[in-house]
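User: My advisor, Dr. K., asked me to get a structural model of this assembly before our group meeting. I'm new to this, so sorry if the format is off. These are the inputs:
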Amino acid sequence: MARTEPFHAPRNQGFVRVAAATPVVHPADPTANALEHIALIEQAGREGADLIVFPELSVSGYAIDDLLMQDALLEGVEVAISMIAAAAQAAGVIAVVGAPIRQTDALYNCAVVLAGGRARAVVPKTFLPNYREYYEKRWFSPGGEARGSVRIGGHWCKFGSRVVMEVEDRPGFTFAVEICEDFWSPVPPSTRAALAGARILLNLSASNVLIGKADDRALLCASQSARAMAGYVFTASGWGESTTDLAWDGQAMIHELGAKLAEGPRFSMESHLTLADIDVERIGLERLRTGTFADCARDEDRRTSEDDRFGRIIIEAEEAPAGPTTDLIRPLDRFPFVPDDPARLDQDCYEAFNIQVQGLMKRMKATNGERLVIGVSGGLDSTQALLVACRAFDRLGLPRTGILAYTMPGFATSDGTKSNAWALMKALGVTGAELDIRPTAMTMLEGIGHPYAKGEPVHDITFENVQAGLRTDYLFRLANQNNAFVLGTGDLSELALGWATYGVGDHMSHYNVNGGVAKTLIRHLIRWVAAKEHGGETADILHAILDTEISPELVPAKDGQIQSTEATVGPYALNDFFLFYITRFGLEPSKVAFLAHQAWKDAARGDWPANTPDDEKVEYDLKTIKDWLRKFLVRFFRTSQFKRSALPNGPKVVTGGSLSPRGDWRAPSDSAATVWLNELETQVPDA
Ligand SMILES: Nc1ncnc2c1ncn2[C@@H]1O[C@H](COP(=O)(O)OP(=O)(O)OC[C@H]2O[C@@H]([n+]3cccc(C(=O)O)c3)[C@H](O)[C@@H]2O)[C@@H](O)[C@H]1O
Ligand SMILES: Nc1ncnc2c1ncn2[C@@H]1O[C@H](COP(=O)(O)OP(=O)(O)OP(=O)(O)O)[C@@H](O)[C@H]1O
Ligand SMILES: NC(=O)CC[C@H](N)C(=O)O
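Assistant: The format is fine. Below is the predicted structure of the whole assembly, which you can bring to the meeting.
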């Protein structure tokens, strides 16, 4: 896709900005309603919206009963629609309004799609409520079967409920409409519209408010956006609508793939907009990777008669007036694996920890295991694995002394991590021991003729991997000796980067509980376990471990500087961000860079996960993001897959994916990264 707009414009990154409008209603006064519409359309234009949607019967008012059958009112509605269409064109916004429309001597409750200064499609409501407080069949005909064309404001346009609008030159900007009761039915018309290709579903609603109803609507919006794999924009009539027998709260919500992007104020007396950027590109990728969607679409198509098939209406994109590029309008977690919302984070930690514990317990049971062996470095990963082991042993009723924990100092082990490792093993009540790997490592270095054995300060990969390999060698033989198995500690982020020593190294174990957990989540998990399960001394040690710089400690410190993992592979905060969007959704590198920049460019903007220390509240500019993303792409796509092609067992934990070859990431061990690198270089500016 040729990019003609600047990199920083959300519109150019596969987003469609939608506005759910909540106008003040003037019952049975189309001209007054038109003016409310026009004011909101102009505001939407200034805010950079592509599409604005109004409530059900927004031009006439909903609760006007038999006034709907008055010729003067219906004529007034048509005039008002023309006024609104002209205003929408001037504002550069596609508008969808609610209006009573006559077609072949019947009246329909319709959504009118306005683009290019005129009505382009009229979609009648399929399911008319006629129960309890609703009497719509008194005035309207059901629109499910209605087909043909209709003349509005002197222009003919398509009439019928089986239409998907497609906006030219905006890939993925396809939308369809349903009206209020339609989505309270067991099979909402929007389900079929989604299967026919609509990625944004609009609901024009006049849903009177009752206690508890807002939650019901939110549930339906969230579930319809999840089930139909779509964006769902809902807006219901608000202040000004007739309260003769009912009341109106003006609830407006925008959802995408089950998640809420935006929600407007309820019971407001002012006209207002609820805005969000819907990621139609991501919706397309999600449908693509979930084969069930296409299977269902085929199935539906097979059972649909020719007359019932959806048609496409191609709409030219409205010319947006020039204006400053605005930031993305949607929630965007800096840490995709660590939600900002404290309740959600608590729930995620609870689930992650229990998934890890359950995985290990089953393996212990299946092997009649009563002991396991683990290398404890005083770093994050082995700490988390040890916490999981303790919980699993407690739940299985096994004594923690069956956990055989070894701290194994090498040439670069610092006093700090070693003493943290010892303090942790003691506090948790496991069987701790120390095994100095240096003599054996020296023997091996001598045996292979490595210069370090002759006293030269050569700290190359061989020097590093001799140590990592010997630790693993010792652990595996200790497992044999003690009728135990080796618990792995490597995390998801390390697997993404290939940051482990292959085979005879920390890459291998008998069972790995951390392989499905990203490093950024491991940090919070340790905090969470410290707060929930441990107090006093253990919690203090856990916090001391959290405060330690992440390091493999394979190369001795130079000038007081320890070997820093993040200085080599990049900040885990960014790497986990890249990993999530690339593996979970398959986004192209430029979009990942765009999102990372939106999320990380300003430390003062948006929320941080609860308990994030102030010194971790950093920001990254686009150049820094591009540089680290380039390295990530090389590591992920070109150099590290062979390590993931041979992984020990362990549970999948996060939706961002597991990188196990038996899980949801399969890739060749000998591929190139060229396509991703080229896309990055050509599409992402350096600043
Ligand atoms: N596609 C492919 N298919 C088959 N073999 C392939 C291969 N690509 C490389 N190789 C071979 O693999 C070997 C390189 O892999 P490997 O032996 O693993 O070594 P390598 O990846 O070069 O080094 C391990 C890295 O992980 C770091 N590390 C180690 C241990 C713990 C931690 C930590 O903090 O968690 C970090 C360490 O600092 C070092 O940078 C070479 O012999 C190469 O020829
Ligand atoms: N000094 C050590 N003593 C015992 N085991 C070690 C030691 N150093 C490394 N290991 C083992 O090798 C694994 C990989 O080392 P690494 O340094 O990556 O892990 P970590 O220190 O637990 O966590 P992080 O990578 O987050 O610092 C450790 O989890 C641990 O099981
Ligand atoms: N306008 C309508 O279709 C209203 C009916 C719908 N069930 C509601 O209460 O929101």
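One thing worth pointing out at the meeting: The mean pLDDT is 95.

User: Perfect, thanks a lot.
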